[in-house]
């Protein structure tokens, strides 16, 4: 199977997601060759990947090398000068792995401008395997790499991050992996009634194993996995698509509607209708299937506490996102979530024949 490097620059490793949407970044100090290259890449990650979510940062050496406090202090000072404070405020945990550093030394090494930001967020652990105490599960490849000096960490060709059309397509017109997940939910309606459905993340190691099966198109194995693992793959696959299901321009246009005070629901749906007329068939059919699932899940709101508003908060970023993330654009993101809610409620309105028909739009029933 084709191999490729897991990280873009030496010393900075993206190690998956925590709690379904929280990126984990591991800084391996003995691997860093160019600190500028690392902080520039870190800035790019923070601006483009789950840009409104918290993240966890782990600092370590490969485990045959001791990590000294001076190394950590130098790295933190460099990041302090080059990572914007608004980005760093999102950090949920800063974990340092070392058996030679004292906790008070670590606290004293924090730049003064970050001291209030990192209150109760700094953690010192002695060994790599103690990451599980922070709900961080690494893949076996990652564990092997971090446990010895090795410059050639590699992993299988990524499953996430492709264009939706690059996945094998089922006869339903939806990617096979998504079709397998949607059929799983059809068979396991009880899971959709579970409180917190789609909000609880599954085991990272189980996620990796399921992905490996999906990569060889073995979908029959899906029933052997925990439902939360399946929902984690479902969400990660959608939110990490190379291009979102809806074109980038759609986010920008919908965001601008916040300036139009009296825009009607009919006009908004007419806009969706125009976009869908020009979207690839796989995008349209995938949207229809997933919108149907979300409507079904929302019907169990009294049991799962996941009405359509909450589901839209989870899934809108999977479908609609800007090409360039703007952290200050919270109001725009809120507007887009509301529009996605409207889309799900009315998906049949504009997907009946995939054609623009402005003259008949006023005759159709719109759900508000």
Automatic annotation (TrEMBL):
GO molecular function, one term: GTPase activator activity
Species assigned in the record: Paramecium pentaurelia
UniProt-recorded name of the protein: Rho-GAP domain-containing protein
CC annotations in GO: cytoplasm
Annotated PANTHER family: RHO GTPASE-ACTIVATING PROTEIN 68F
Record-annotated membrane-spanning stretches: none
GO process terms (BP): small GTPase-mediated signal transduction
InterPro entries attached to this UniProt entry: RhoGAP_dom (IPR000198)
One Pfam family cited in the UniProt record for this chain: RhoGAP
Domain Rho-GAP: 162-351
